[in-house]
Amino acid sequence: MTKIVLLLFCVIGVNLDLSASTSIECSYKTRDWNIVQNVYHCPVNKNPRITTRESAAITSISGTHQNGMTNSDVGGFYAYSRTINYFPRGLETFFKTIKIIQIYDCNLKEVHQEDLKPFPNLVELYLRFNDLEVLEEGLFDFNPDLHYIGLNYNKIVYIGPNVFDHLTKLRDLSLHSNLCISKEAKNSISEVKNVIQAIKSQCNINTTTTTTTQPPTTTQAPTTTTQAPTTTSTTPKSINFESCLELESKIDNIASSLKDLIGQPSNEAFSNNNNQCEAFTEALRNQSEAIGRIDNRTEALTEAMDTKLEILKENVENTRTLSLRQMQNFKDEVKADHAELLDAIRLRTDKIEKNIEELNQKLTNIMKALKIDS
């Protein structure tokens, strides 16, 4: 019954007037993704705190672009460990070539067809570690190029009919660690088809169920046969308020009938099973949180390595520039020293030639004095 109530809150009141607004600050970077490589994208720098549908309207985006880049070069949007309860609206007015969207560990509660419709070129969608419960029918009708969808570690209890069937390019589909299903397909279109078949049997409420229960007979009393009410539930094309109430009422009736039928001993058994299920669920949640923390550390290490790599590249470039400058200075110094040396040699040569002339003159005078005919 709790799931039904949660489902009810997720599906009503979607089309509200977006009167509030939110600003986003980007720290632009370039990175490789699973399918698309070398994507210039917008990692959300500060927490935008989108806690209502009204605040999901994005009216301004700030941040310093890398050299030569503009909004038209942005191909991805990445929000990590932020408060984004509702899918941001209006990103397409700033970034018109979005191929990658990742909203990771942001407590995202719902996503609708209208949220994804502005991104017809979307190739990869990551909505992991959030609070999604429902994937509505037609969710990806306007995203035919999707190759990768990551929805693991959510709380999905219902997936509408044929949500993934038309995505002929889809080769990675991750739905593990959800409530109605825990399966994934990696880099295989055939495995994706297997996951889709599992979805139809585990996450679609579209089957007719008849329940007939007879309590055991005893020797002290005549045999009694009590039949629980027959229920037929067919999923409407779109879940609405009335269908949720009707389904909840049927579940209440069945629960009341079963309680009368099974008696106290079975109730205790069910209670024990329920406690075991709750313990298992808690252990699974703890494991999921531990994996999330490991993933957080991995993400932080990756960011740190990227920063160190950028610093290393900058140092290499600075060293190269310095080496070239030092080499040129050395050449200039050698050239200057060479010129000074040539000048010194010329001066010395001139002096030697002058001395030779003086000696020749003295020799001539001596010869004249001795009356030696030269």
From TrEMBL:
Database matches in Pfam families: LRR_8 (PF13855)
Biased composition (Low complexity): 207-236
Superkingdom as given in the UniProt entry: Eukaryota
Record bears the keyword Coiled coil: yes
Keywords per UniProt: Coiled coil, Leucine-rich repeat, Repeat, Signal
Ranges annotated as spanning the membrane: none
Signal peptide as annotated in the record: 1-21
Chain segments annotated as coiled-coil in the UniProt record: 342-373
Region (Disordered): 207-237
Designated name of the protein: Uncharacterized protein
Organism: Chironomus riparius
